[in-house]
Amino acid sequence: MGFQPSPVLLASLGVGLLTVLGLALGSYLVRKSRRPKVTLLDPNEKYLLRLLDKTTVSHNTKRFRFALPTAHHVLGLPVGKHVYLSARIDGSLVIRPYTPVTSDEDQGYVDLVIKVYLKGVHPKFPEGGKMSQYLNSLKIGDVVEFRGPSGLLTYTGKGNFSIQPNKKSPPEPQVAKKLGMIAGGTGITPMLQLIRAILKDREDPTQCSLLFANQIGPTARGL
């Protein structure tokens, strides 16, 4: 006769197996619960985010902080992508693209640094900026529609990009060893997003060059 395990041995093995499975499942659930939740799940969906804070950065620039759904949420914006903000202003739908200055390491909020074009200040913009003035008029607790991620470019790290020639085309891989960037004013935010991602990874050999220009405000002129 062959070896026949006793009922006690079978029971012990069963308990041991269940214990191992339970520990593995528990470890998985703990890791899963620690993962931050993503806000921008659907690029075609609009997400209402509440204004938390409004801070003056310079004479014409402000930082707007919006709350994500919970303190454990991240925006969920890949490097190279941007968001769209939309609002009904004077009966018309106004949509503008913005790149946050925060990243997915920041949980619970997203920050936008925006230059406010006021009416009657700049000769090139006599009516001012519709969206920037609208955002500037918001009170703490007001909500704004966010949509994203948007854009044709994604940086995946170590000089690797995923670029769509157009919205209907599939992304194509591109590799760059050196990046040259030109930016002016608050238009630097997309470049900062990329530069931060590169500098954060010590194994990323990509070299960056940035040419930046900015208008001198009245405060700086007085110095």
Task: Give the topology.
Blueprint: H1 7-34, E1 37-38, E2 47-58, E3 61-67, E4 73-74, E5 82-89, E6 92-98, E7 109-115, H2 130-137, E8 143-150, E9 153-157, E10 160-163, E11 172-175, E12 178-184, H3 189-200, E13 207-213, H4 218-221
Protein name: Nadh-cytochrome b5 reductase 1-like
GO molecular function: cytochrome-b5 reductase activity, acting on NAD(P)H; FAD binding
Cofactor: FAD
How does this model look, in words?
The protein has 223 residues and is of the alpha+beta class. The chain has two domains: 36-151, Elongation Factor Tu (Ef-tu), domain 3, CATH 2.40.30; 152-216, 3-Layer(aba) Sandwich (Rossmann fold), CATH 3.40.50.80. It has helices at residues 7-34, 130-137, 189-200, 218-221, and strands at 37-38, 47-58, 61-67, 73-74, 82-89, 92-98, 109-115, 143-150, 153-157, 160-163, 172-175, 178-184, 207-213. Strands 6-5-8-2-3-7 form a six-stranded antiparallel sheet, covered by helices on one side. The termini are far apart.
